[in-house]
Amino acid sequence: MKIYRILTGMAVGLAMASCSNYLDVKPYGKVIPTTAEEFSALLNGDLDAIDQGNTNYLVPNFIHTGVSLDGEFSDNFEVCLTSNSGSSLNRLRSYVGDAISRNNTNDIYSGLYEVVRNCNLVLNEMEERGTEQADKMLALAYGMRGVSYYQLMRYFCEAPEAGNMSGQLGLPLVEVFDMEATPARSTLAQTVTFIENDLKMALSIHMTDGDYRFTDDVITGYLCRLYFWTQQWDKALPLAQELLRKYPLISGDEYVEMMMTVGPLKGNQMIKAYRASTGTDQATDGALSSLATRPVSVRVINCYYGDEKNTDVRYNLCFNGKRQAKNKIFCGMRAAEFALIEAECLYHMNQPDEALRSINRLRSNRIAGYTDMKMDEVPAVLSSETISKDATGAALTPLMGLILSERRKELFLEGDRFFELKRNGAPEFSSFNNGVKYTTRSFMYTFPIPVREFDITDNLVQNPGYNEVINI
Fold this sequence. Notes:
Blueprint: E1 2-5, E2 11-12, H1 36-52, H2 62-72, H3 96-101, H4 106-125, H5 132-156, E3 169-172, E4 185-187, H6 188-205, H7 216-229, H8 233-246, H9 252-260, E5 269-272, H10 282-291, H11 298-301, H12 308-311, H13 313-318, E6 332-334, H14 335-348, H15 352-364, H16 398-410, H17 417-423, E7 429-433, E8 436-440, H18 453-456, E9 468-471
Antiparallel strand pairs: 1-2, 1-9, 3-4, 5-6, 7-8
Helix pairs in contact: 1-4, 1-5, 2-10, 4-5, 5-6, 5-7, 6-7, 7-8, 8-14, 14-15, 14-16, 15-16
């Protein structure tokens, strides 16, 4: 049999779950639903998983965003200072390679393709059309399928290279219900177009019912994220500004209340996990307990300039005196992300003054008594910063460094940092734990296609870095 081995010498075993289940109707019995109401049950389970904070990579839960992506895979925490005290269940992995070698990334692949399967059943098999319920199901299915492929793209495709996406590997695209389908990989350009078309189809039908979570505003947010991820700054900018008009930034106690509230949407939040939770959620408490064994990186602390440790509301919200993460538990989409997108788009569109004005607006909503920073006051990029290149491959300037620094503070523990590293040059960095050196290689930001997929699809191509084959 075959196994694929990453270049660090760690084996990726055949225990990987196959995404072939994404084409299997058996989980819903042997009878395909007929009415729009019956089809809604296929997607309501995925919506409920989001609301409950269960393992769901459509809107990932706090264990995945806070512990895995931030606490283990990124440079937001000091691996070398990890305490081994406490339950073994709370032990943190040393780096992303641990998750890859233990096949922990396979659930992301299979889980999201199962959502794709459910959406395809609705889109292909639901004969009811023209009714209010049918329209809702179509909008939801297009939206959720587009979001699923967007998430799959970020995990399993390399970061886009502007002008070269036709030469980069995309995803196997499944758009019809076919139990015999074994699709090969598309190009990244084709994948991006597919996602864009799905999200636009959802918007054309108009989902306004908040009970179905993926409303027009949420889908617009994902379309903005797609354009931003693929460096289509001129398309991302107006969508970010549109959402900021609808969901303006908030500050002070209102901001703290929003970020501390588990359950219903608050402030300018648009979609979130754990909406079915009340009070303090056991899962988030468990995640914070795990993170308490690993101090926050000094590089994160250094993002707070001068007296900002005392004046920036985010500092006390995120850290205690022992540099342990606390309180901030949001998993979803909210307005501040689009303020950061606005600033970076303006920067890449050669409007530095407007970009600084945008980032000053965000900072003024977070820092008490804030005075706008002038261009000659923007601090130099710290030599200890992991990221040295921006998304276009250009050397990091002080202004771009400021934008990324604000993003790091604002979206701390929201699962963003790992993808920021990937998007901005996929820098290699090392950490130490128990006398062992762990190096995150550039290719590890892109997870391997599960090996079992190669047993059912002859012309499937593995991601770079995972191509060494050994026979055992």
